[in-house]
Write a structure and sequence with these properties.
Blueprint (H helix, E strand, L loop, with lengths): L6 H9 L14 H8 L2 H12 L16 H8 L2 H9 L14 H7 L3 H8 L2
Helix pairs in contact: 2-3, 2-4, 4-5, 6-7
Length: about 120
Amino acid sequence: AVTAGKRETVQLLLDCGANIEARNQQGCTALRAAIQANSFESCKVIALLLDRGARMDAAENNGTADTVLLQALKTGEKELVRFLFEKGASTEATSEDGSTPLLEALSMQDTQLVRMLLER
């Protein structure tokens, strides 16, 4: 439901007591899976999950340990990055390998993302 962008289904599952921080077989929370789905529909699910208390700082179990913001940056979706800023994503949070959002944007050579991060 999360990766398919089925907001109503996700809402129903949460209303019925589903654990918002539960992980799939790859170790991703619903929030991370929605970000990886990278679709217009998944943005609605991301908003719902954050409104319902999904943690942006939850460590990932799949070996990358990227922060939610780093995952969003890697999609290149600037509106998603802005939305995460509005919801309190930290530009200072680092992944397990020491990557920061700014370093990631620089490595992507995306001047808009770099500028956006420097303005924070």
